[in-house]
Structure formats: C-alpha cells, structure tokens
Amino acid sequence: MTVSKDMVIGELIQVDTGFIPILMGAGMHCLGCPASQGETLEEACQVHGLDADELVQTMNEYLAAKQQ
User: Fold this and answer.
1) pLDDT value at position 29?
2) Is 19 exposed, middle or buried (0-12, 13-18, 19+ CB in 10 A)?
3) What predicted TM-score, i.e. pTM, was given to this entire model?
4) Residue 49 to residue 60: CA distance in whole angstroms
5) 16-51 pLDDT tens trace
6) Are 37 and 10 in contact (CB under 8 A)?
7) Burial zone of 3 (CB within 10 Å; 0-12 exposed, 13-18 middle, 19+ buried)
8) 9-67 CATH, one of 1.10.10, 3.40.50, 2.60.40, 1.10.3910
9) Rounded Cα distance, 13 and 49, in Å
10) Cα separation of the two ends of the chain
C-alpha cells in the first residue's frame, strides 16, 4: 500500500490505526469528527494549513519502516 493525497482519512484509519498518531501529530485533532472521516488527506491539509505532500511522505515512511 502507498498513501496518496486523494485517499480518504476514514479509510486510511481503518487500514492502519498507526496513522492516527501521525495525523494527530500533524495537527489534525478532529479525527473523530464525522466530516473528517469523509475528507481526503489533501482536503484536510488545506483546512488545517498543512503541506499534504509532507504528510503523505511521513505516512509512507511509517509504512516502509513497518515492513522492515
């Protein structure tokens, strides 16, 4: 699996709950909000003023480290 900006946050969390601390650490503290569950990473990053590419890179690095 590779994370991309067009993936929905709710689906990513269902795939791997390890994404939760990454998202929370980036400033997305509203993960329990129903609206956030249907947002893409890119949409959520725009709302929170975050760089979507950096967040995607961090999440993919997490997955890569987990596979080792």
Assistant:
1) 80
2) buried
3) 0.88
4) 20
5) 999 999 999 998 887 777 777 789 999 999 989 999
6) yes
7) buried
8) 1.10.3910
9) 21
10) 14
CA distances from 49 to 27, 55, 59 (A): 9, 12, 17
Separation between Cα atoms, residue 35 and residue 9, nearest integer Å:
10
> What's the burial of 10, exposed, middle or buried (CB within 10 Å: 0-12/13-18/19+)?
middle
Neighbours of 16 (CB within 10 A): 15
Pull the structure tokens for residue 18: 């390890």
Range 30-61 burial, b when 16+ CB lie within 10 A, else e? beeeeebeebbbbbbbeebebebeebbeebee
